[in-house]
């Protein structure tokens, strides 16, 4: 009995996906490895705080680099696909150190390549990317490693 209880405690926690990406037809799923970039900014009251600035990440499919993710937010694939999203829903990551999971609608799509028909993007299974700690130098930058899966759907 104790062995069963111990094995349940040590079992990996399944990744939570707060959205229902299965409700739409998948176009592409890519794994991202990169960083979330933050900038130290001064508030109106003179206090400073870290503000998200932009992501930078490589996108992988079956272990092969297929594109990049960067500010906008944009996703650009090696086949010429470039799309831009706008956040419409958020859900917390699995831990306080994981960035939020997102649902984004595409507000721009060049209509070429693998993302030709994509209209939605989900950022799920996030790991890392959240920033802790005070910022003391206005204009200072910090990058925090993260990974996530991006599901593109039509």
Question: Could you describe the 3D structure shown?
Answer:
This protein is mainly β. It has one domain (23-153). It is built from 1 helix and 8 strands, in the order H-E-E-E-E-E-E-E-E. The protein has an 8-stranded antiparallel β-barrel with strand order 1-2-3-4-5-6-7-8. The radius of gyration is 18 Å and the shape is elongated. Residues 1-16 have low confidence and may be disordered.
Summarize the structure.
This protein has 154 residues and is mainly beta. Helices cover 6% and strands 54% of the residues. The chain has one domain.
The average pLDDT is: 88
Helix content bin = under 10%
Counted by DSSP, the helix tally is: 1
What is the number of independent domains? Answer: 1
Strand content: over 45%
Strand line-up of the largest beta sheet: 1-2-3-4-5-6-7-8
The radius of gyration over CA amounts to 18 Å
The sequence of SSEs as H and E is HEEEEEEEE
First-last Cα distance: 48 Å
Q: Looking at the structure, what is the overall shape?
A: elongated
Structural class: mainly beta
Largest sheet: 8 strands, antiparallel, barrel
Low-confidence stretches are: 1-16
Number of strands: 8
